[in-house]
Amino acid sequence: MFLNPLCVHLFRLYFTKVKLGSPPREFNVQIDTGSDILWVTCSSCTDCPQSSGLGIQLSLFDTTSSSSARMVPCSDPMCSSEYQTTATQCSQSNQCSYSFQYGDGSGTSGYYVADMLSFDAVMGQSSIANSSALIVFGCSTYQSGDLTKTDKAVDGIFGFGRGDLSVISQLSSRGITPRVFSHCLKGDGSGGGIMVLGAIMEPSIVYSPLVPSQPHYNLMLQSIAVNGQLLQIDPSVFATSSNRGTIVDSGTTLAYLVQEAYDPFVIAITATVSPSVTPTISKGNQCYLVAASVSQIFPPVSLNFASGASMMLKPEDYLIRSGFYDGATMWCIGFQKVQGGISILGDLVLKDKIFVYDLAHQRIGWANYDCSLSVNVSITSSKDFINEWQLSVSSSTKEMLFKLIPLSFITFLIQLLELVEFQFL
């Protein structure tokens, strides 16, 4: 059965505000664990978006307007970082410049700037004081691909990758934060979530080791089970290397599965639900016409990783609602088939879960969680404060976002927004 029904296009974007420069100026930046650097649009960029369809006011970073800004010379160690994933080169003026391309084909280039990152330090559990730290970030003078589209334009991208130039690496190397960060992304249409430069504490978190010496957060997926039954997939399909494995990436909206695993996965889902739904193909995707709740019909899925860590997926974690036809709702498999050796777990899978990226111990942990609830985070016991980045949170709501547990390090909090755009085609 092939249909072209009334379709709903879903677009999610998680972003936060950061304050850069002296005096501090706010910038809206997308959260991306699949890349390293923090960059914002530079005032010298002539072809970059001037407006945004996301309901935000775009800002430009002007080095001449910040009293603490300085260009990063080519001789700076940060310009030749061993694990840097951006191509660097030197200009005639001895500026350290960069060029970076994302997986969707979009790209940015510019030069590196050293300036102050400002945030709020929460003393104990009440009073707030200003704090700041010097970081290196990108000033974008050129953008291409989706980055030029005004409908989803932001001021930049906040990379949380494993490279030396990521903010988490810069701050942790100076003892300002631990080498760990966490997020909890709300999956409902109201948006929101929390991102912590530190550890969210949750007893049910399970951990799996990262593949060593990789630029991305690459995990060792070993098997997939549908409704408790292991799928017959050759284990070599999940082998890991620089261009193989399973990557966790908050900058990816959906999820991607290599063909050798995708085909048996879809076959198993369809076989389980076929008595209760009508399977159909829409625009090349496996879909189902459903007249009842998907949670009552579709089976649970388990992604089984090294060290015995399983990621349990509800139907909403692998399905997307894509349209309506003849009084029924069309749900489609949200995993996309890829020919290469890399599977990607994007926001479709990451939402409604706590994820902890423990770089100090080279592992990632996760647990299903209601991200509208408060989370337990860790703070230093000697100074007894946390550094907190907030976005559109009232003082009454702020108390509900987190609980403080005295431990031996500083934790940053970032409030996130999720934007959902519906387009009827």
Task: Please describe what this structure looks like.
This protein has 425 residues and is mainly beta. It has two domains: 11-199 and 369-424, Beta Barrel (Cathepsin D, subunit A, domain 1); 203-361, Cathepsin D, subunit A, domain 1 (Beta Barrel). Helix content is 9%, strand content 44%. It has helices at residues 167-173, 259-273, 294-297, 347-350, 395-401; strands at residues 6-9, 14-20, 25-32, 38-41, 70-71, 87-90, 96-101, 107-123, 127-144, 156-159, 180-185, 193-197, 200-201, 206-209, 218-219, 221-226, 229-230, 245-248, 255-258, 278-282, 285-290, 301-305, 310-313, 319-325, 328-333, 335-338, 342-345, 353-358, 363-368, 375-380, 385-389, 402-407, 412-415, 417-418, 423-424. The strands form five sheets. It has a six-stranded antiparallel β-sheet, with no helix packed on it. Keywords: Aspartyl protease, Glycoprotein, Hydrolase, Protease. InterPro entries: Aspartic_peptidase_A1, Pepsin-like_plant, PEPTIDASE_A1, Peptidase_aspartic_dom_sf, TAXi_C, TAXi_N. The active site is at 32, 249.
CATH top level class name of the largest domain: Mainly Beta
The strand line-up of the biggest sheet is 20-21-25-24-1-35
What is the number of helices? 5
- N-to-C CA distance: 20 Å
Low-confidence runs (pLDDT<50, min 5 residues)? 1-10, 380-415, 419-425
How many strands, which pairing sense, and closed or not: the largest β-sheet?
6 strands, antiparallel
CATH architecture of the largest domain: Beta Barrel
Report the structural category.
mainly beta
Instruction: Give the overall shape, derived from the CA principal axes.
Output: globular
Summarize model confidence as the mean pLDDT.
82
- Radius of gyration from the CA trace? 22 Å
Indicate how many domains the architecture comprises: 2
Strand elements, count: 35
The CATH homologous superfamily of the largest domain is termed: Acid Proteases
Query: Helix amount, in percent?
Result: under 10%
In percent, how much strand structure appears in the residues? 35-45%
CATH topology descriptor of the largest domain = Cathepsin D, subunit A, domain 1
